[in-house]
Design goal:
The protein is mainly β. The protein is 11% helix and 41% strand. Residues 56-253 form the Fumarylacetoacetase-like C-terminal domain.
């Protein structure tokens, strides 16, 4: 199933995408799903970020090839950070290049959407708590990020408004062990890899996070980026692609003076 969150005539709802038609749901998809009987052509809808105001857990240095290209030591536990809910935008929404930014990078990532909450979830049970998978762009201001990380912190460099595009759909039933994922900037491929290169798997991440905190329906875990990250500037268009999920496209615009 391909789950979407959409807006039509000022009203927001969830539904499932079947070809070019979206069948509306009663309520959110975190539980038993029922269709309302209403259906809309996709072309008449504005797709939104597939989860409303989620908690977003990020993972650094989680692709083996990316660790090698960065020259960093291999983590022994997941390197975690959070992005505020105000960083989340949807398909087609602009990534705003902050006034004070000096170097902004794109990062293609597989995003895990939690469907059933829990605490101390065993790795063997982890995927039972996953609703599905979407795409994320973990946009990062590198100069601020380095300054923060040199002092043992990380927030603003990854937390600007619009620095977490998500979408276009939540795809259920995928095997997260080997999903091809990548990025294009202005049509040129910049990243291409597979989740088979993850250091810590989706099962590992769900188990590790839930060992410390209760995961909630609608939480999002962005699982790290493969090698090939690079800069973006106003005027660029960034596309994140993933097999079975589609393409998440966002333009980059300058923040007004």
């Amino acid at each position: 199933m391909l789950i979407v969150r959409f807006e039509r005539d000022g009203r927001r709802a969830y539904g499932d995408l079947d070809g070019d038609v979206v069948h509306e749901f009663e309520g959110a998809p975190f539980g038993v799903v029922h269709r309302t009987g209403k259906a809309w052509p996709l072309a008449q809808l504005r797709l939104l970020a597939p989860v409303e105001a989620p908690r977003v857990f990020g993972v650094g240095l989680n692709y083996v090839a990316h660790i090698a290209e960065s020259g960093s030591a291999t983590p022994t536990t997941p390197l975690l950070f959070m992005k505020p809910s105000t960083a989340v935008i949807g398909p087609g929404d602009p990534i705003v290049y902050p006034r004070e930014a000096g170097l902004v990078h794109f990062e293609a990532e597989l995003a895990v959407v939690i469907g059933r909450g829990g605490r101390r979830i065993a790795p063997a049970d982890a995927l039972d708590h996953v609703l599905g998978y979407t795409l994320a762009n973990d946009v990062s201001e590198r100069i601020i990020q380095k300054t923060e990380m040199d002092q043992g912190a990380l927030l603003v460099g990854k937390g600007y408004d619009g620095f977490c595009p998500l979408g276009p759909v939540i795809a259920t039933g995928l095997d997260p062990a080997d999903i091809r994922i990548g990025a294009r900037v202005n049509g040129a491929e910049r990243q291409s890899s597979s989740t088979a290169d993850l250091l810590f798997s989706v099962r590992d991440l769900v188990a590790y996070l839930s060992g410390a905190m209760t995961l909630l329906p609608g939480d999002v875990i962005i699982t790290g980026t493969p090698s090939g990250v690079g800069p973006i500037v106003p005027g660029d268009v960034v596309e994140i692609f993933g097999d079975g999920i589609g393409v998440l496209s966002n333009p980059v615009v300058a923040e007004p003076a």
